[in-house]
Write a structure and sequence with these properties.
This protein has 238 residues and is α/β, with parallel strands linked by helices. It has helices at 28-33, 55-64, 85-95, 109-122, 139-151, 166-179, 193-203, 224-237; strands at residues 5-7, 10-12, 18-23, 39-43, 69-72, 101-105, 125-132, 156-162, 185-189, 207-211. It contains eight helices and ten strands. The strands form two sheets. The chain has an eight-stranded parallel β-sheet.
């Protein structure tokens, strides 16, 4: 990878994947503890009633625990909670001054246009993501999504698909290997999702995600207690 990427003070590099612990309001204490994680992802869309006025204090509390925070307000169409775009935008704007990174869907055109310039002005990492919840498209289609994310201003493109079998996992592996030179995150949901959380980081995915309470993905997500020892052992052995 020929450029430096970091979330807060946590550098990202091929061969040294970072673990993101993901959770919502019921997991705030677990996110603050999150032993084994390098960063935390706050899934604001999974709050029962997320409020812009209370969000900055929550993010600051998590950051004070010692790990950078990715703020995500996922769209319902890509596996998130039932929030409209106006409310999602208000939540992102409230969190952006205190977050280390934000994750927005490539398909959320209006939010991308409004938030990417603001994030860049503040020096925050921009993750632009695409979630295919029912299948794994061909490598060419996935690389097209990666290119679209970069064209929209992503520091880090992120691709998640539903992988039914090892053939789908091989598709994600090929995508990861092809895109890793400039930085990418890949992961799978579905039957081979757990395996993807270890295999794809070994191929060059810069982040892998685990939950600290309730899973934040529809399927295929390991707990932090399960994933962290596997990733650490794999990387030490490589």
């Amino acid at each position: 990878m020929n450029r430096r990427l970091a979330i807060g003070g946590v550098a990202l590099a091929v061969g040294a994947p970072r673990i993101a612990a993901a959770g919502a309001e019921d997991e705030l204490d677990a996110l603050a503890a999150a032993n084994g994680a390098d960063v935390v992802e706050l899934r604001v869309d999974l709050f029962r009633d997320p409020r812009p006025d209370s969000l900055p204090a929550i993010v600051q509390t998590l950051r004070a625990a010692g790990r950078p925070v990715i703020v995500t307000v996922r769209a319902a169409a890509e596996g998130g909670g039932p929030l409209g775009d106006d409310r999602r935008l208000a939540l992102y704007l409230a969190a952006l001054p205190v977050a280390d990174a934000i994750d927005i869907e490539v398909a959320s055109d209006a939010l991308v246009a409004a938030l990417v310039p603001r994030a860049r002005a503040l020096g925050r990492m921009v993750i632009l993501s695409a979630h295919v919840l029912d299948t794994t498209p061909p490598v060419t289609a996935l690389l097209g999504l990666v290119d679209r994310a970069r064209g929209l201003g992503a520091d880090l493109p992120k691709i998640a698909t539903h992988a039914r079998d090892h053939a789908d996992l091989r598709t994600l592996l090929a995508t990861t290997l092809a895109a890793s030179e400039h930085g990418v995150v890949t992961l799978a949901m579905g039957p081979v999702g757990p395996l993807s959380r270890v295999v794809l980081p070994a191929a060059g995915s810069l982040l892998t995600y685990a939950h600290v309470g309730r899973p934040t993905a529809p399927s295929g997500q390991l707990s932090l207690a399960e994933l962290a020892p596997l990733v650490r052992r794999l990387m030490l052995a490589s």
